[in-house]
Write a structure and sequence with these properties.
The protein has twelve helices and 16 strands. It is of the alpha+beta class. The longest helix is centred in the N-terminal third of the chain and has 23 residues, at 134-156. Bound molecules: 4-amino-1,4-dioxobutan-2-aminium adenosine-5'-monophosphate and magnesium ion. 4-amino-1,4-dioxobutan-2-aminium adenosine-5'-monophosphate is lined by residues 172-173, 193, 195, 216, 218, 225-226, 229, 231, 233, 368-372, 412-416, 418-419, 430. Keywords: Aminoacyl-tRNA synthetase, ATP-binding, Coiled coil, Cytoplasm, Ligase, Nucleotide-binding, Protein biosynthesis.
């Protein structure tokens, strides 16, 4: 594999080890005396040099981009003044083509070089080829590292991982974004969030987490909305709101530190997002009501989507939220949203019953990446909340019974992995942060 570094290199008269390496042609460059190929195998890049007779025995298609092949030769240190990834190159003495790429392979190059434009539908149709590009591959590698860092952080904090169902018969985040389906003759949905199921895990398992898919029938074509996304969710037992906020700062910071502690991943992040810095703790905290004042105090004021000044009770829409976050340019824990604009399960603040013990984590460039809250503990209060939201509580018996059978002060959150990656990797849209994005009118490839 290209990543193997413990191979003796040749230099000058000193012979290097003869190796066999398989991969695909990423780029090729023709010179008079030699052909230079950049080989990729998912672990890195290797420069391969073909000279002498080897450069005469192929036709143009053999070395088209995408062609898979096995090469044999001696690994040498590159001469001073020449460049190659890692300072190594393979002096090829023999090769076997495994899968030639067609002559329009160049089209791949073009698609790949345009991969930054996630809106163009031909790019999305060609996502399987775009994924072969350096940029897409780097984002996927960072994403993999981040998922692992989350799993490690939770394990170190002794959270138990559970795997809630995707087919459900209850809503969590409002009826308007539910994907409904026929489940053997019964009405069911694709889950919007695993939160309610996580809550049922805490009595016997303590703090729990999951990394599962969530589904939202979002009718919005924004750069941060997907129909299917990866949701990192956790639920903490016997905590108060302050504990929850501190935990959020800790998990986000730890995951970034772990991810960047690996030099290979750190180099990818640096290339994708040169300005990225580990946020300093504690994060800036801001109550919803102060955010409303802040928006109105700007010159000119940052208005609602309807073009009006914000008043208490307004949802802070995506555009205003992002502008605020970009101007402040720091991670923000935005807290204490009004009851009416938040989900039924959120606990009210003691001091001000108009607001909830809720939090959104906002990051520059993306806005909201986390939504969380303390949960209502009392049965009667929860029943009231269902009534307020017009939800029939019957289907929720397994959830509401948590309050009957030994309730506890608890809270949790959900973090959109694609949004986290968009922030960390400086991506314009969440669409380039997943393998095959799903959003309105897009369900292929
Ligand atoms: O704010 P949300 O809707 O909160 C919940 O689902 C809670 N039940 C989570 C919990 O407490 N366990 O979603 C949480 C996060 C958002 O902050 C966002 O990062 C992401 O999920 N998210 C989306 N990401 C991509 N596309 C969408 N359509 C998303 N909707 C939410
Ligand atoms: Mg939210």
């Amino acid at each position: 594999k290209i990543w193997q570094k413990d191979i003796e290199l040749g230099e000058g008269d000193k012979k290097g080890t003869r190796v066999k390496v398989s991969g695909r042609i990423h780029r090729q460059r023709q010179q008079k005396q030699a052909t230079f190929l950049t080989l990729i195998d998912g672990y890195g890049h290797l420069q391969c040099v073909l000279s002498g007779d080897l450069t005469k025995t192929y036709d143009a298609l053999t070395f088209a981009q995408g062609t898979s092949l096995t090469l044999y030769g001696e690994l040498k240190r590159v001469l001073e003044g020449q460049t190659a990834p890692d300072g190594r190159e393979l002096h090829v003495d023999y090769y076997v083509v495994i899968g030639a790429s067609p002559s329009d392979a160049d089209a791949i190059t073009n698609r790949v070089s345009k991969e930054q434009d996630p809106w163009e539908s031909s790019m999305l149709d060609s996502r399987h080829l775009v994924l072969r590009g350096d940029n897409a591959a780097s984002v996927m590698k960072v994403r993999s590292a981040v998922e692992w860092a989350f799993a490690k952080a939770y394990k170190d904090m002794r959270f138990t991982k559970i795997s809630p169902p995707a087919f459900v018969q209850t809503q969590v985040e409002g009826g308007s974004t539910l994907f409904e389906l026929d489940y053997h003759g019964e009405k069911a949905y694709l889950t919007q969030s695993s939160q309610l199921y996580l809550e049922t895990g805490i009595p016997s398992l303590g703090n729990v987490y999951c990394i599962e898919k969530s589904f939202r029938a979002e009718k919005s074509l924004t750069r941060r909305h997907l129909s299917e996304y990866t949701h990192v969710e956790a639920e903490l037992d016997f905590v108060d709101f302050e504990d929850l906020l501190t935990h959020l700062e800790e998990i986000i910071s730890t995951v970034i530190e772990t991810t960047l502690a690996d030099p290979v991943t750190a180099a990818l992040v640096k290339e994708l997002n040169p300005g990225f810095k580990v946020p300093t703790r504690p994060f800036k905290r801001m109550r919803y009501s102060d955010a409303i004042d802040w928006l109105n105090a700007q010159d000119p004021p940052i208005l609602t989507d309807k073009g009006e000044r914000h008043v208490f009770g307004d949802d802070i829409a995506e555009a205003a939220e992002r502008r605020m976050t970009d101007i402040i340019n720091l991670p923000i824990l935005l807290t204490h949203f009004p009851v009416e604009i938040k989900a039924f399960y959120m606990k009210k603040e003691e001091a001000d019953r108009r607001v909830t013990e809720s939090v959104d984590v906002l990051m520059p460039g993306v806005g909201e990446i986390v939504g969380g809250s303390m949960r209502m503990e009392g049965y009667e209060e929860l029943m009231e909340a269902y009534k307020r939201e017009g939800i029939a509580p019957k289907e929720y018996y397994w959830y509401t019974e948590q309050r009957k059978y030994g309730t506890s002060p608890h809270g949790g959150y959900g973090l959109g992995l694609e949004r986290f990656i968009a922030w960390m990797c400086g991506q314009h849209s969440v669409r380039t942060c997943c393998l095959y994005p799903r959003f309105m009118n897009r369900c292929k490839p």
